Structure formats: structure tokens, C-alpha cells
Amino acid sequence: MAATEARPVTSPGPSHLGPYLGEPSSIDETGLDLNTIADLALKLVYFNSMTTAQSIADTLCLPFFNIVDRALILLKREEFIEVAGSSGFGELAYQYVTTPKGSARAHDVIERTSYVGPAPVTLESYWEIVRSQEIGQIRITPADVRRATADLVLPDDILDTLGQAVNTGRSLFLFGDPGNGKTTIAERITDLLGGAVLIPHALIVDGQIIKVLDLHNHVPVALNGKSEIDRRWVACRRPSIIVGGELTLSTLDLVWDSGSKFYEAPLQLKANGGMLLIDDFGRQQVRPRDLLNRWIVPLEKRIDYLTLHTGKKIEVPFDQLIVFSTNLAPKDLVDEAFLRRIQNKVLIGNPSIDHFREIFRRQCDSLKVPFDQNGLVYLLREYYVKPKRELRSCHPRDILRTLIGIARYLDEPAILSTALIDRACQTYFVEL
Q1: Is 215 exposed, middle or buried (0-12, 13-18, 19+ CB in 10 A)?
Q2: Domain with 422 in it: what CATH number?
Q3: Does some domain include residue 7?
Q4: Domain final position from 82, 116, 150
């Protein structure tokens, strides 16, 4: 592996985007050796039967001149590929095919890994970029928090705690009864983080490929028209990855595909530079204590340890705001030692009468139901005060949606009449 890599340069792109890598101009600046690039090019030609030099450079996300062309020269010298024609003028239009010798070589390379795509970046380069754009460098203000949560109705103390948690860039524990918006609140954190980060298509460690970019979880953004960057990296919104009851310990390590012989990065690696939300914490298939023990070292050291199928452990950055959201009491899930490592703990309680009224009014506006103070008073008196039912932030939305459905069924206007409120509440509430 070469000792030097592409030089970071200042980005004019989205705010908070750290340095990005200028396009490499030599093999050394890619951080890869010539044989690695040549093997990728050979697999590409083999899988496509015939392909152009331009297509090879585009697929590998590397410049043709002085990098891909050198790999093709090596493959031709070894008689692994040959020019079968041209689709235009110049070297970029040359069409390549594998020779019988090259096909045999391609089989040997595919036995090690069948990965074909953008050339990987080194783990050293990844560490450098993650450090340059770490979330601990972000500073948000009370005004930022209130702007990001303008559509929510929350007490000031909860808003301030959210801002403090984001500024620490560490961890957050949201707990409280269901239906009061813990998940919705957590989802606003990515908006508070703002800006963009660079995410590699793939990493290479000891010759092993780890796919990182995941378009299900990563949202690419434009870099203000700048194109002369290392295309092996993609500027994306800071990640916001949410996982619930399906989370297991195995999903927190490298996922090895024995058929394709390369890895998929675990969730926490994909979440670097953003947020990882463990929703419904305590309801996973793994015991909460075992899951939390997995996080102790990363939370303190900001380093995670992953294991290759060869048994070798590698150190990777752990740079995300990890958020635990649960309906269960913290004391029933974790011990004091672990709670100490979670710097910010927030109880998301039931809304006050004033907050409930404001949520109800906003939901009426959103769902196009005329707001009626008398109707709200009737709802509160008959279905909260008399039965001594607790208020929940989700109730206004849910009750109004039920009311709208009933009104459509009856072919009536959706209004806050006592009759429609009664039918909606009798359908929605159940005594446990």
C-alpha cells in the first residue's frame, strides 16, 4: 500500500462539510497499489464481456490518465486483456475484452472477492476524513434548536437539553411513556447537526473490501458544481439511521457475504458523522445489558473494534450521536455504571393542558378540521378529566384522523361535534 494519499482541500460545498479530497493524480495518491486497481479493472472487463476505457474509469471513480491507463497497460503487458475495437477517437474509446489467460486470472481474483465498483479508500484515509468532520466540532444555539423543532410543541427545558446533547456530540437517552414523540424528537437531531459529510463508497483493509455507502441510509448532496474531487467519496447529508426491534449483536459487526466475498459495513459505521437512533430500546431480540456492554468502549473512546472473518480486529472511528429511545424505565434496563456513560438523559413526559391544546389546534389546521374551543373542552372533560386519563401528545392527531374517517363514512363534514367526538373516542380508547 502506498504511503501517501490524495491531498485534502477546502470545500466550497454545504455548510459544516469538512475538507474533501482533491482528485488523485497518481497511483500513490489513491493510497492503493497498481495491482489492486488492475484487478478491479480486469473483473470489470470480464463481467461486461467488452467495455471501454472510459467506462472502466467511470466505474472505478478514478482518473483515466496516469492511473487507470497504467492499470490497463499492466493488464495488456501480462496478456490478460486486449483491444477488440473502438467506439470513437482516442484511448478512452478503446474497447477491451479478456483473453483466455485473462479469464483464468479473473476467476482467481473473483475467488478472493467479486467486488466490482468504485475503487476503495484506505482505512487511514477514512480516519483522517472522519476526524476532519466530526460532530463534536458542531455548535448549535437555542435559536437553532427552536428553528429545527418549530413544528413541535415542547417545553423549553427539553429543547435546551437537546441542544446541549448535540453540542456534546456524544449520547442521549430519551425515556417516558409511549405516544409523546420521543422518536419524532430524535429525528430532529439530524436537522440540528446540519451540513454534509464525505462518505466513501468502500474501504479496503488487508485486501478486504468493506462497502460503506448505502443509499437507503445516505442522501447525496451537490457540492456547488465542483467536480474535481475524488469520486470515491460522496458528499451526503449527515446520516440519520434508525433501528428498532430487529437490532441484534451480529448487525453491529461486519456483515460478511460468503458468496460475493466482501463486507457490508455495520450500522454504526454507516452512521459516522450523524445520528444512530436505537428505537424501542429494550425490545430488541438481544438483552439490553448485552447490547449496552457492546457500546461501553465506543462511547468512551470514540473507537469501535470490528472483526474480519480472518479473525483480525480493526479499529474504526465511532463518531455519531447515539440516541436510545425507550418506553421502559431506565432502572429496569441498565445499571448506574452504564447510565453514567450516557451524558444526556431526558424524560419526555405527558404534555400540559396548554401544550395539549396547542397540539390539538395545530393538528386541526393540518388536517383541515375547523378548530372549536367548545369541542376541545368537551373532549377534555368527558374523555380525560372524568376517566382520569393521561394526556398524550399523539392523541390529538390520532383522534382527529379517526373523526375524519367516521365523518367520511357518514357523509358528514368533519367538525368537532359532540357526536363525532364520542364516536371517535369510543373507537380509539380502550380500557386496559
Answers
A1: exposed
A2: 1.10.8
A3: no
A4: 116
Would you say 260 and 115 are in contact if contact means Cβ atoms under 8 Å apart? Answer: yes
Q: Residue 291 is placed in which grid cell?
A: 447490547
Give 331-387 pLDDT, tens digit per residue: 777 777 777 777 788 899 999 999 999 999 999 999 999 999 999 999 999 999 999
Please tell me the number of Cα atoms within 13 Å of 251 on its side-chain side.
15
> Could you tell me if 146 and 92 lie in one domain?
no
**CA gap 97, 27 in Å, rounded:** 23
Residue numbers of the domain that contains 330: 124-347
Give dist(CA 121, CA 256) in Å, integer. Answer: 19
Share of the chain above pLDDT 90, in %: 69
The three cell numbers of residue 52 are: 471501454
The predicted model scores a pTM of 0.87
Distance CA 408, CA 64 (A): 63
Pair 357, 328 in one domain: no
Q: Total domain count for the chain? A: 3
Q: Please say which residue of 322, 347, 372 terminates a domain.
A: 347
Mean pLDDT of 197-209: 96
266-300 tens-digit pLDDT: 999 999 999 999 998 888 888 887 887 888 888 88
